Amino acid sequence: MAVISVLNPKGGSGKTTLTTNLAQALHLRGNKVLIVDSDPQGSARDWHAASEANPLPLVSLDRANNIKTLSSMTESYDHIVLDGAAKLEDIIAAAIKASDFILIPVQPSPYDIWAASDLVDFIKARQEVTDGSPQAAFVITRHIEGTRLGDDVRKALDEYELPVFRTAITQRQIYPQTASEGRTVLDGDNAKARDEINALADELIAMMPDTGRGEK
């Protein structure tokens, strides 16, 4: 079992989109997946409630003390994917401690890159006392096709000395369209969007510790 947290203290970075689509990708590979919404705004909860046929279970843990209970759920799932809160340092700190892997979504904007600084410091401080756990990597979100912004962001993120996923999440209408229906792009008809989510899941599985655990 692995706890995968999608964290960035800046709002609008694409955390919920990444959480829900990645969770569905892992589910479709035969894994038992739980989504945890740790944001008091409840975006993942709203997404989940939009479809009665949603195949993924979801729980709300929007207090730091509640996140500590994740350890009691680990035996029941192959993967737990946590949608992080914004600007709530106690919840973010608790999520870092509970995680095996952290994805940091970053838009191609200097403001998003700067906003990640404190989060990276939190993660590295935790890694120093836990022999490198949790692992962490950046994911570029809302990339605009046909621009060089993605390359510029990768160069800027090099300063943080964390991996950057090769796969970027492109800004496509299919993401908000499927989200409004409680679905993901893997349920839609946009092949490019499906391919990038599946490629992202492949990269994550390859990078995670004990990658064979829970994979069917």
From TrEMBL:
Signal sequence, start to end: none
SUPFAM superfamilies with a match to the protein in the record: P-loop containing nucleoside triphosphate hydrolases
Pfam families: CbiA
Domain CobQ/CobB/MinD/ParA nucleotide binding: residue ranges: 4-184
Residues annotated as transmembrane: none
PANTHER family: COBQ_COBB_MIND_PARA NUCLEOTIDE BINDING DOMAIN-CONTAINING PROTEIN, P-LOOP CONTAINING NUCLEOSIDE TRIPHOSPHATE HYDROLASE
Name of this protein: Chromosome partitioning protein
Source organism of this protein record: Novosphingobium marinum
Lineage: Bacteria, Pseudomonadati, Pseudomonadota, Alphaproteobacteria, Sphingomonadales
